[in-house]
Request: fold
Amino acid sequence: MTGGERTQLIVKQDNLDNIQKFYEIVQRDFSSEKFNENFLIGLENLVYRVSYVEFLALSMKQVPTYLPHENGTLLISAIEHILKPRILFPDKKPIYDSELTSKYTGVQFSGAEQGASFSLGTVAESYVDFGKYYMFIPIFFFGLWIGWMYKYFIVNGYNIIWGMCYSAPIFQFAWSFPVPTAKFFGWSVTYFIGFWFLNKYIIKHLDNWLLKKV
Reply:
């Protein structure tokens, strides 16, 4: 989809060609000769991806031995990033996940120039900010925020069916280990605002229209 370039820009727009290329990759990587080897490699990568503890472990080696704790700087920056919409603050710096991860793990990661992005993650950022004990305070409040959103959607949805529809995507936010704090807050706040607007002005009309169709 990127035309063989190390970038995140999609240049291959022909869906049929993309499907054909996908088929070729599947034939190559899932051939009977290489299946066992590739399956084990994929399984190992999946475990690392789901657990997402490697970056936290590297951060704990790097901080505070070589770098001091940030004492809330990362959290404050994340909140400021949300409260300053780019349309009003055009000079707001973009989020470069790999730079933050490279700094606090001591390992150099490929960045946007190479078409890659490696996030330190909310948990690791909390450790860098507050240390191995106080890191759980903001994590606890993150959990309260997600739980409150879930309850709010269920209770305040136009009806119970729509409430369940609203709350289902919450589980995407709940699994926030690989997501940087700024994006975690930004996505969840944006989702909540979108829910409020749809629930107040749109869903009742859509629900009535669906009932008429039934």
Summary: Residues 181-213 form the longest helix (33 residues). Residues 198 and 204 are 9 Å apart (CA to CA).
